From TrEMBL:
Domain Transposase IS116/IS110/IS902 C-terminal: 260-343
InterPro entries, per database record: Transp_IS110-like_N (IPR002525), Transpos_IS110 (IPR047650), Transposase_20 (IPR003346)
Protein origin, superkingdom: Archaea
GO molecular function, one term: DNA binding
Record-linked NCBIfam families: transpos_IS110
The name this protein goes by in its record: Transposase IS116/IS110/IS902 family protein
Residue ranges of every copy of the Transposase IS110-like N-terminal domain listed in the record: 16-171
Phylogenetic lineage: Archaea, Methanobacteriati, Thermoplasmatota, Thermoplasmata, Thermoplasmatales
Stored PANTHER family: TRANSPOSASE, TRANSPOSASE FOR INSERTION SEQUENCE ELEMENT IS1111A
GO BP of this protein: DNA transposition
Length: 386
């Protein structure tokens, strides 16, 4: 039963769960004994935010939690920060188990808000918090990184459609000339000249040029597909310009930051930007175990009788960190002396394939954690041996 709104600030700890949608958000206020104090629904705009602030203003000992729901939580979160109220951002995977454990399988935002509040109590010693003074350190970088990722995805979609069109019009061409090769755009921009033998494709052999020319000569006729190819070429040209512009902005942001992650061999500007903007303040993580879990690099352990079997990583955390870690690990195996030795040792022990790459990624994540946590440059331990 809902209690009247009274000042519970005294010695009590108050917990607020917020479930946010596009147009509104549900909130639920409970005490440490999980007794309901108040719940309600407000509009997801500045008016709703100010009304929410009025509701919680009497509570001093308060913890607020909300799920990271696409972009819908961002405005409320920033509003709370600006008004000296900190909040905990939870990955939806963190609260999913509690929500799904209800005996009655009804699902409402009101119930979800209560589940979030209860989750903060149950997991209060293991939640990765967002400190109000440090969370916005990489806000701009994070937004530019998201833009960069979105443009990259659009480029992939445009390329995939281009491959479909090219296979319809010029069967066999994409098998000979990879769409990601540096001469592919040169081919489709000079098709008529190549057919008429008035243009030589750069960077390829004469035999391959002849093979491509024969494919173009024996092409199908479909004006609609040709039009779609032209549209996709224009789209790719625009997207590539936008990607380069965004990359330059990210480089400027990254270069202006004083972060020791730059000293780690194998981590470049883009991968470093993704990792930094995803992690935020390293002090949110009081152990490497939490950072692994946040990154989805923690192992999945299956128990059967007296045996514990570690099969694979959970992949439940931030996918962007895993993406950046993968790219960085591939580079670090070549250029980072610590990772290079680790890779060689594990490979000689019989580890191979994806399991070997994951092991190296976790080793690199350990290095990232140590460097950021201690705020010290990367050093190869062997260099300190006399």
């Amino acid at each position: 039963m809902e209690r009247e709104s009274v000042n519970w600030s005294g010695g009590y700890m108050i917990y607020v769960g917020i479930d946010i949608a596009k147009k509104k958000f549900d909130y639920c206020i409970i005490n440490s004994e999980m007794n309901l104090i108040k719940r309600g629904i407000l509009i997801n705009n500045n008016y709703g935010f100010s009304e929410f602030l009025k509701i919680i203003k009497n509570y001093r000992n308060i913890k607020i939690g909300m799920e990271s729901t696409s972009i819908y939580h961002v405005n409320l979160y920033n509003y709370l920060i600006e008004n000296s109220r900190s909040a905990i951002i939870l990955n939806s995977l963190e609260t999913k188990l509690l929500k799904s454990s209800r005996i009655r399988k009804n699902k409402t935002d009101k119930i979800d808000a209560e589940a979030i509040a209860k989750y903060i109590i149950i997991r209060k010693n293991n939640i990765i918090t967002m400190d109000k003074n440090t969370e916005n350190t990489y806000t701009n970088l994070k937004e530019y990184v998201y833009t960069y990722i979105r443009i990259n995805r659009k480029i992939t979609m445009a390329k995939n459609q281009l491959i479909v069109d090219m296979d319809l019009l010029y069967p066999g061409l994409t098998a000979v000339a990879n769409v990601n090769s540096k001469y592919f755009m040169e081919i489709i921009s000079n098709i008529d000249q190549i057919i008429e033998n008035n243009y030589k494709i750069k960077y390829i052999s004469d035999s391959k040029h002849s093979e491509i020319r024969n494919i173009l000569i024996n092409s199908n006729t479909n004006n609609a597909v040709k039009y779609d190819i032209d549209i996709n070429i224009e789209t790719l040209e625009l997207l590539n310009k936008q990607l380069m512009k965004t990359k330059n902005i990210i480089e400027d942001e990254y270069n202006s930051m004083d972060s020791k992650i730059k000293t780690i061999p194998g981590i470049g500007t883009i991968t470093g930007s993704i990792i930094l903007s995803s992690i935020g303040d390293i002090n949110r993580f009081d152990s490497i175990i939490k950072l692994r879990a946040y990154s989805g690099m923690d192992p999945v352990v299956k128990q059967s009788g007296d045996y514990n079997i570690t099969s694979k990583i959970s992949k439940r955390g931030n996918p962007l960190i895993r993406y950046a870690l993968y790219l960085s690990t591939v580079s670090a195996i070549r250029f980072n002396p610590v990772i290079k030795r680790y890779y060689t040792r594990k490979k000689n022990d019989g580890m191979k394939g994806n399991k070997l790459l994951i092991a190296c990624s976790n080793k690199l994540l350990n290095i990232i954690y140590s460097v950021l946590k201690n705020n010290k440059d990367f050093e190869d331990p062997l260099n300190n041996i006399n």
